């Protein structure tokens, strides 16, 4: 397993206190899809040495919200519901990719789906609903 970052991924510039301990995070846009990626490390794993479901859930939530708001202007998104189906396990050293796509964008609600893979194997699938809120313009 190599420590290289796959083509198309760049350092993720939108920082968050919840994901700061998991840095470095990478992002990629491809059409309507927004992906987050990272190399799974020991700090992402549970006591059994497997990728923690909380990391998968948090990154899926983050990626799906960003997939929605990057397709809209002047809005932010608050999670209303999040569901994750865990299908397999990830291990330290693997490349984790969370690929999110907006399913429907509305004025007050947005919906998105995500596919979570480690080295190309599907680990989980997720879906979320977001409350869309307008972001106040900054004063100059």
TrEMBL record:
Species of the source: Sphingosinicella microcystinivorans
Key words of the record: Hydrolase
Record Pfam families: 4HBT (PF03061)
Entry similarity comment: Belongs to the thioesterase PaaI family.
Protein name: Uncharacterized protein (TIGR00369 family)
Domain Thioesterase as annotated: residue spans: 49-123
